[in-house]
Amino acid sequence: xxxxxxxxxxxxxxxxxxxxxxxxxxxxxxxxxxxxxxxxxxxxxxxxxxxxxxxxxxxxxxxxxxxxxxxxxxxxxxxxxxxxxxxxxxxxxxxxxxxxxxxxxx
Amino acid sequence: xxxxxxxxxxxxxxxxxxxxxxxxxxxxxxxxxxxxxxxxxxxxxxxxxxxxxxxxxxxxxxxxxxxxxxxxxxxxxxxxxxxxxxxxxxxxxxxxxxxxxxxxxxxxxxxxxxxxxxxxxxxxxxxxxxxxxxxxxxxxxxxxxxxxxxxxxxxxxxxxxxxxxxxxxxxxxxxxxxxxxxxxxxxxxxxxxxxxxxxxxxxxxxxxxxxxxxxxxxxxxxxxxxxxxxxxxxxxxxxxx
Lengths: 106, 241
Prior knowledge:
The complex is a heterodimer of chains A (106) and B (241).
Chain A: H1 5-28, H2 36-43, H3 45-59, E1 60-61, E2 64-65, H4 72-87, H5 90-105
Antiparallel strand pairs in A: 1-2
Helix pairs in contact in A: 4-5
Chain B: H1 8-14, H2 16-35, H3 40-50, H4 53-64, H5 69-80, H6 83-90, H7 99-107, H8 111-123, H9 130-152, H10 154-158, H11 161-168, H12 170-185, H13 189-209, H14 214-235
């Protein structure tokens, strides 16, 4: 149950560089009224960031594109997207996707 | 606070899907962290102080490779700098909050809690900080406990890379679910779809050409810009040109 000093330093340094981008805009931009076009731009951020994170996680394997149904993650995510579209249930989506992936690749 | 105000409990309840997702990913993270030689105390500290899934995986793999501190910190910064965009997107909803409350909410901002919050606020702006604090704390406490549980089970799982991989697959599944919910909430679904496809294609292309966290950042910046351009273009009055 020990914490090595070098690991503590590493965690604290990483936490600091993580906290700044999380906190700064919320604190600073709150006092400013942003122009409409910036608000419109920001409204597309969630879709863009999620889509990029998802695509990279699933379609790139060991630095190479793996856009094929031979990639079990692709099949499982297509199924998860379908479940999400029909049920709008995040829990159902995660369970269906993980379950199918387990069956295909586990 | 009146009775109809957003309560802490409402927020925690809205976080239930994130809680379930974090159980899976947190377990996987704990297994990997312990297997990389971190002690239980270090796993707990990591999940409570850093509290960032992808960054924890990055840190763990770099510690296992004995990378220098500066390299780990810089990589974690690049992985997490996308939170600038998420934090900026929530800022307009918390204009009337005292700065220290905004700071506390921001400290526990993640991709998943952001999407749940942004989806809810687009329908109805928050009243005060309680709702988001409930959402945040539900996700945060689950994350720490799941990491610790994963560390405890690490010995059982360590022989099975497959089990860890399957648990970790909760992450892309959660992204997929959140993406669909976000698209459904867009007032312009077709523009949203175009942004999603474009960001996905660009992200994959950049990641293949030059692996690194900038792939996500670049795809996000370009994707949101495309969304704005399409919106302006399709809604511009004909007489102005």
